[in-house]
Amino acid sequence: MFKKILVPVDLAELDFSKPALDAALSIARTDGATLRLLNVLQLLPAMMAEYLPADFDEIQQKNASEALAKLAGGLDLHPANISAAVRIGPVHHEVLEEAKEFGADLIVMSSHDPGLRTYFIGSNAAQVVRHAHCSVMVVRSRAEAP
């Protein structure tokens, strides 16, 4: 049913991303789909730039790419069916752009339980669900389940 699955992964909180990754792997194995892991690095405020090395963004991208490659190597899926990407920008925007460029027909992502803050400014998952051109599966963290 699904052929290209995009999974946003927060490398700083792998435990948070694990339920979505597990669900995506299960679907990929069943459907013979290709899996794309995505890590989105946040833009840093301009006032911080003067305190960071000139190549800070490149270093962050390299470290994220290496971490994604290590994560992909540990997954129980044929290596030809796994790829990874690193983007910089607002999370929901970069997830949507990667989904378009990759040709994803499913995005599988983790989400925290909604709180008061997300009702006013919207969570990344909510923004992706509202604006995605493909199906989106939102997986709640097992630790947060009732």
From TrEMBL:
Record key words, sorted: Cytoplasm
Chief localisation class: cytoplasm
Intracellular or extracellular location(s): Cytoplasm
GO cellular component, one term: cytoplasm
Domain UspA, residue spans: 1-140
Matches recorded under InterPro entries: Rossmann-like_a/b/a_fold, Universal_stress_UspA, UspA
UniProt KW Cytoplasm keyword: yes
Key word Protein transport present: no
Pfam families: Usp
Top-level taxon: Bacteria
Family per record: Belongs to the universal stress protein A family.
Protein name per Swiss-Prot or TrEMBL: Universal stress protein
Species of provenance: Blastochloris tepida
Phylogenetic lineage: Bacteria, Pseudomonadati, Pseudomonadota, Alphaproteobacteria, Hyphomicrobiales
